[in-house]
Design goal:
The structure is a single chain. By secondary structure, the protein is of the alpha/beta class. It is built from six helices and eight strands; from the N terminus they run E-E-E-H-E-H-H-E-H-E-E-H-E-H. Strands 1-2-4-3-5-6-7-8 form an eight-stranded mixed sheet, sandwiched between helices. Helix 4 links the parallel strand 5 and strand 6. Helix 1 crosses helix 6 and helix 3 packs across helix 4. The longest helix is centred in the last third of the chain and has 20 residues. The protein is globular and about 45 Å long.
Length: 234
């Protein structure tokens, strides 16, 4: 697996750090790229994001993880949505134009905020990708299951894979399952027992974080392989 530091240009105004990854042998690449955006409280070096990006790259998928501008500047508060959107668009352009690991399919993945912004963009035709992966979707504010962030999800006609922890205060499992049942497109759900919003387990659990990451990567690979190997487009 190869990791190459790079930078993503945002509307010709600024650049953010990124890491492009792929298999050791170029011939092992399957032409599918997965972009992974971080959540509000972390960055592209979050352990979950790195584990997923590196494992998918080792399996033949080109991956791109990057920082949003506010993290690049060392700030805590997320950028305004227009900036988050432009950064996502810059990441897609960068991946499609990269010459190191050429791709012809793009899967948008995101941790919490990163995934939510991607889903809103796809629903509004602001970003052309072939599928979506959510590493913890923020379905609602803590304790506010009466106000769901779900309306735009019903506009998406792409394949979607959701990961959710049973202790996630931002995503009630039953509410998420109800949302998925109402979706018009193909969706799948992988539940991490005992996981919180970042899939961390209780201190009383004897299961190490590495095994949780392995569960997530295994499901990603199974889900991606179902259609990337079957046709030239997702």
């Amino acid at each position: 697996m190869v990791n190459e530091p790079t930078s993503i240009e945002i509307m010709g105004k600024e650049k953010v750090s990124a890491v492009l990854s792929g298999p050791d042998q170029l011939g092992d690449s399957n032409k599918t790229g997965v972009i992974i955006a971080h959540g509000a409280a972390n960055n592209m070096n979050n352990s979950l994001i790195v584990a997923v990006a590196d494992s998918l790259a080792a399996a033949g998928y080109t991956t791109l993880r990057y920082n949003f501008p506010y993290k690049e500047k060392g700030k805590k508060s997320p950028d305004a949505e227009p900036t988050l959107i432009r950064t996502w668009q810059g990441a897609v352009t960068h991946l499609l134009n990269n010459e190191r690991f050429p791709v012809d399919r793009v899967v948008a993945a995101g941790k919490s905020m990163g995934g939510r912004i991607a889903s809103q963009m796809v629903a509004a035709d602001q970003m052309a990708v072939d599928a979506l992966i959510f590493l913890g979707y923020p379905l609602h504010a803590p304790g506010r299951t009466d106000k769901l962030r779900d309306s735009h999800l019903y506009e998406i006609r792409k394949r979607m894979l959701f990961f959710a922890g049973t202790r996630d205060p931002l995503c009630n499992i039953e509410k998420l399952q109800e949302v998925l049942q109402r979706m018009p497109g193909l969706s799948d759900l992988e539940i991490v027992k005992g996981g919180n919003h970042s899939f961390k387990l209780p201190k009383s659990s004897s299961r190490p974080a590495e095994l949780v990451y392995q569960q997530i990567v295994k499901k990603c690979l199974q889900w991606l392989d179902q259609f990337t190997n079957a046709s030239p487009k997702i």
